[in-house]
């Protein structure tokens, strides 16, 4: 089998020679071009497994090359070579279709990893088999079919993706599918809830630390970026990052390296960043609660996950799968929905989306008789409560305190309700275990259940 071809486009002879030697040692045959005109001719005459192009060329720009390849040679992965620190050019390249970028001076180890990823990508593009992972996203509605197509496209890139959507729509599932359908599938997928890490521990958790760097640091520890090396780091609830961590995260994205606490040298990391939040990140930028420069780095591509009310046709299939899972977990016969109960689900607004559907059905299975769920077993919220919840979801910008008729007390009650229902689900409605998970006494949990009308 012939060695794959690579095309290197750069007007600096030293860079062309460095890449030719490095790629040659990796078993690639390398052709070069020193300007846009030569690059166009090479692309028209040959086929390439990957391409590198400098940003600035004597007769044009690398951006032209990337746009040309995206339009006419889409099977060829292309990476931009940028000047050190010029991330704006890298972001524009990613938006135009580049799968990644490399900064000058070129880090050879990073370059090798990038090439390996690109070659995997080129192999996948030849066959383009339907991914088995797509089956995890149930539904046949137009909204979900469009989402599947977009996920498949985004999986081929290495660009940062910002996944937006209401709570409970399945943003982590979408992130996992992007990872599983891309060339990093064999690498780790590391999800992290940015709102669950105490501020004082964040730097250590993300970047690691060296032994003795602070009280309690009894051994070297890798951070989340090192754990995700070669794979994907999913930053869930990224809006919860404090400002000091936003600054540090921006630097890691720009330099592709982390410095552990107490470390003298930076450690290169090869990580694709996916992020998500249910909050309106653009509004947080406007109100100065989220850095604009970081927003533009993580939001190279935005992917909106539709709420369940925009894909009601998927509810029967989703409900069926949840009931199958509950039956398998309990070892009992599968519970069925009466036609009236299914009609009630189809008419319901689901402000909590797929997660709420799961919660509703799990509660209904526990309450129903004769393995049959009737409308009353669902205990769905009245229409007025649905409208209030949907309005809160639409207006959630995270930058100010709660508003609306409920005021602060109603806002806090909603937070308590969500946390308690989540703990109950995770502990299979074992109230003692749920109280322990929530960090409160069993008596306090009983009081809150009664106060919030959860029982």
Summarize the structure.
The protein is of the alpha/beta class. Helices cover 48% and strands 13% of the residues.
Architecture overview:
By secondary structure, the protein is of the alpha/beta class. It is built from 20 helices and 16 strands. Helix 18 (407-426) packs across helix 20 and helix 19 (431-438) crosses helix 20. The longest helix has 20 residues, at 108-127. The model is unreliable at 127-135 and 397-406 (pLDDT under 50).
What is the average per-residue confidence, as pLDDT, rounded to a whole number?
A: 83
What assembly state would you assign to the polypeptide chains in this entry? single chain
Classify the secondary structure makeup into a structural class. alpha/beta
Spatial extent as radius of gyration = 25 Å
Strand content: 5-15%
Poorly predicted regions are 127-135, 397-406
User: Sheet with the most strands?
Assistant: 5 strands, parallel
Fraction of residues in helices? 40-55%
Q: Give the strand order, joined by hyphens, for the main sheet.
A: 2-1-3-6-7
The first-to-last residue Cα distance is 67 Å
Helix count, DSSP H or I runs of 4 or more residues = 20
Q: Could you give the count of β-strands?
A: 16
Query: What general outline do the C-alpha atoms trace?
Result: globular
Write the layout of secondary structure elements.
Elements: E1 5-9, H1 13-25, E2 29-33, H2 36-45, E3 50-54, E4 56-57, E5 60-61, H3 62-72, E6 78-82, H4 87-96, E7 100-103, H5 108-127, H6 142-155, E8 161-164, H7 171-180, E9 189-193, H8 202-207, H9 224-227, E10 232-236, H10 243-255, E11 257-258, E12 267-268, E13 272-277, H11 281-286, H12 292-298, E14 301-304, H13 315-330, E15 336-337, H14 339-347, H15 353-367, E16 372-373, H16 375-378, H17 383-395, H18 407-426, H19 431-438, H20 442-452
Parallel strand pairs: 1-2, 1-3, 3-6, 6-7, 8-13, 8-14, 9-10, 10-13, 15-16
Antiparallel strand pairs: 4-5, 11-12
Helix pairs in contact: 2-3, 6-7, 13-15, 18-19, 18-20, 19-20
């Amino acid at each position: 089998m012939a060695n794959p071809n690579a095309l290197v486009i750069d007007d600096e002879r030293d860079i062309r020679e460095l890449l030719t030697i490095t790629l040659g040692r990796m078993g690639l045959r390398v052709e070069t071009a020193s300007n846009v005109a030569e690059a166009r001719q090479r692309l028209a005459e040959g086929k390439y497994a990957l391409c590198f192009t400098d940003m600035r060329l004597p007769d044009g720009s690398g951006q032209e090359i990337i746009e040309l390849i995206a339009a006419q040679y889409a099977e060829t992965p292309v990476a931009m070579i940028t000047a050190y620190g010029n991330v704006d050019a890298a972001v524009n390249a990613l938006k135009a279709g580049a799968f990644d970028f490399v900064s000058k001076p070129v880090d050879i180890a990073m370059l090798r990893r990038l090439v390996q990823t690109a070659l995997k990508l080129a192999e996948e593009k030849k066959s383009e088999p339907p991914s088995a992972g797509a089956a995890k996203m149930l539904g046949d509605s137009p909204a979900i079919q469009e989402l599947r197509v977009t996920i498949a496209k985004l999986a081929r890139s290495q660009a940062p993706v910002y996944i937006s959507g209401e709570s409970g729509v399945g943003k982590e599932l979408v992130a996992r599918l992007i990872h599983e359908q891309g060339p990093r599938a064999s690498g780790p997928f590391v999800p992290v809830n940015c709102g669950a890490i105490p501020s004082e521990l964040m730097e250590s958790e993300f970047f690691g630390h060296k032994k003795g760097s602070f009280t309690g640091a009894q051994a070297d520890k890798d951070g989340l970026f090192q754990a995700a090396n070669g794979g994907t780091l999913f930053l869930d609830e990224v809006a919860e990052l404090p400002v000091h961590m936003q600054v540090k995260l921006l630097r890691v994205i720009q330099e592709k390296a982390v410095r552990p606490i107490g470390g003298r040298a930076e450690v290169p990391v090869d990580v694709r960043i996916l992020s998500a939040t249910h909050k309106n990140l653009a509004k947080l930028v406007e109100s100065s609660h989220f850095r604009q420069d970081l927003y533009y780095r993580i939001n190279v591509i935005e992917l909106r996950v539709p709420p369940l009310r925009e894909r009601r046709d998927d509810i029967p299939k989703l409900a069926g799968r949840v009931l199958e899972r509950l039956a398998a977990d309990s070892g009992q016969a599968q519970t069925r929905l009466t036609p009236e109960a299914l009609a009630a689900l189809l008419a319901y607004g689901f402000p909590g989306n797929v997660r709420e559907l799961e919660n509703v059905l799990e509660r209904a299975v526990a309450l129903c008789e004769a393995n049959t769920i009737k409308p009353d077993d669902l205990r769905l919220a009245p229409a007025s409560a649905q409208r209030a919840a949907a309005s809160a979801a639409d207006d959630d910008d995270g930058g100010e305190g709660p508003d609306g008729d409920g005021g602060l007390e109603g806002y806090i009650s909603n937070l308590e309700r969500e946390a308690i229902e989540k703990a109950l689900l995770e502990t299979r409605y074992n109230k003692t275990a749920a109280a322990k998970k929530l960090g409160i006494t069993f008596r306090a949990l009983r009081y809150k259940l009664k106060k919030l009308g959860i029982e």
